[in-house]
Structure prediction request, 767 residues.
Amino acid sequence: MARLKLERRRAIFDWSLRIGFAIVLLVAWELSTRAQSRALAAPPSEILIAFWELTFIEGVIFSETLVTARAFFMGYGAAIAIGLLVGMLMGRSRLAEYVLEPYVTLMYALPSIALIPVLVIWFGINDRIRIVLVILASVFPIIYNTATGVKNVDEELVEVGKSFCATRRKIATSIVLPAALPLIFAGLRIGLSHALVGVIGAEIIVVITGLGGLVIRYADNFQMANMFVPIIFIATLAVLITAGMNRFQTVFRRWEVQDE
Amino acid sequence: MLSIRSVDKRFSLDGPLVLDRINMEVRNGEFVSLLGPSGCGKTTLLKIVAGLLPATGGEVYLEGKESTEPSREKAMVFQHFNLLPWRTAINNVAYGLEVQGVAKAERLETAARFLKLLDLEGYEDHYPSQISGGMKQRVGLARALATEPRLMLMDEPFGALDALTREYLQDELARIAASQDLTVLFVTHSIDEAIYLSDRIVVMGNNPGRILVEYPVPFERPRTSTVVRADPRFAELRNQVWVLLEEEKSKR
Amino acid sequence: MTNLAPESGLLARVPPRLVRIASVVVVVLAWEIAGRAAPRWASYPTEVAAAFMDNLDRIIDAFIETFKAVGVGYAISVAGGVLIGFGMARIRVVKVALDPYVAVLYSTPRITLIPLAILLIGIGFNLRVLMSVLASIFPMIINTYAAVDSVSAELEETARSFTASRWSITRTVLIPGAIPGIFVGMRVGIIRALVGVIVAEMTAGAAGVGALLLVFGRFFQSEKLFGPVLLLGFMSILMTRGLSLLERKLAPWQD
Ligand SMILES: Nc1ncnc2c1ncn2[C@@H]1O[C@H](COP(=O)(O)OP(=O)(O)OP(=O)(O)O)[C@@H](O)[C@H]1O
Ligand SMILES: [Mg+2]
Prediction:
């Protein structure tokens, strides 16, 4: 008699539960939206049709995805470069730490969305605003965590390097940086989620371009089914980028896993 | 007092046999040590007796009644202390009593008494993170003792301690066990410790975990470490157990 | 503390606080001078302060309005997030069913949902509460889940060996063990709750700080803008510091 292994049985149970729960949600959604007036929200069946039309027939969605992704990657990339640099500087030099700390603390705590009106005055309502907002949203967690990570590297580890007469540069790259990596990655991940909020926030609140802008435009025209399509794309983009970051992190920190 | 009858254990349906037909009796007031190579199932057996793990086959009887759940007659001392980090020493010691529904004033009084018994006066309000390893182990011991169990299950309680603290606590344990008339099932890796403390030594083998031999320990109580160690019977027993364990290790 | 590049003797003798204060003074002065040269862009501190005092009533009203919504939304998020996080950590069915939604919604910026939210519940107080709940409940859920999940199984077993019931294990082991992790979620969550409300006020709001900032921004009144923006930053710092103090009070066993 073929006896299903416990794990397989469990996996089958899990997936039936997930799919079953998803079906219940979808049916409830379909029925509740069909019951009321059309203006409120679209049933899943219509969203599916809209998804098909917008992605495979009209294709607008891809060009807007590119617009959003481009601003995101430019801003986040710049934030990483600036954040790592300033963070290391603050971690390694007390003067830099003391001088910069008040601003980093303030800007980290400040909801960057609140800076949008200021940015409008400085840059006008245009595409650059998104990149600047992404940088402002994500650079401070990166700075803060990098600085903390570099600063708190175990003194004894550094002494190991010194005992082998390693140069200062060698110590920095072979000891301080790897030891600080867990916190640096924590900063990168926080920065990532702030950056996503920054780019979509700017698109929805001021610039009305990209995927965020598409959501607003469809909502303004009460094209409810269409509105869900860019939302789905934003979610997919966000999940993919986050998964990519986690992936990158496990590759980079492999030795920590091996430790176990 | 304690009767382990034909206990088997597998952790999953098609997993390996971890314990194979364990049979064992422990009399009232007896101190029995379990010795065996790492991974032979000592912790598993102790947890089955404690009621923390279900046996796959066989039964455990306590005072003639089948025992499958934790109960007030039993208390376990864990290898890694397992103190609750968010409780002060006295509240850790009072923990078992609290769970068993003893009123606050009473349980704190009892806890204070047992802290004193283990020389921990003055550390009542320290958190585990603020005391040494030996003190943590004593708090763990006091916590188990405070519930006034009939049967103490101790899993390598002194494994993580330095030699001095260890000897000190061994004497302490021997004294308390005698004065409280405790029945003890004691897991250890140290042959010396087993001989010094117990009335009987049970040696277990590996793959599957099973009982190989039992040795009675011939020394009178109360014992002193120096006298026991100087006795020629000590060296002989020690050697017998050692040879057996070495053989068992090389079999793998 | 690792000091790879030891500073010259001078810094070692100056107390850090003095350096920080000096840094702030220099920047404020520089801003004043630069701002006077081009006031339309960045205004300058004295003018910002004056504008702040002139509009004090409006600003206070806006902050009260905003923080009312933050308070309600945050309270819902903390309660709901802790409950759901606990449920996911302890009841497998709950975890399996909710996992995909929590994971996707946690990484997706919830700002995306604001047009939908407006169409569903309008633009009143409820919208601001809803957005702050959406923004802050996921960090609460995830951190509570991770915290409860990481409470050592050995401690649970210890409690069981003393005949602890399920409820008493929850009360004496799981809840205290999860407190530090829950506070991590609460510190992230409070800022997110504020962001959620401000987003709602900026897209739809007729009231609150977000709306006020839009009004000031619309007429290029940068001198009016900076006051409330800075105040928001200080409030955020204050709230997270307050939570840290509360944590030290509730969880004094951590070093
Ligand atoms: N929860 C578990 N699931 C599966 N296998 C387990 C589990 N706990 C223990 N085992 C296995 O059961 C066997 C016995 O483990 P146990 O911890 O009882 O050994 P032990 O004699 O206490 O060893 P040590 O002296 O190292 O503490 C080991 O092979 C171990 O891998
Ligand atoms: Mg063991």
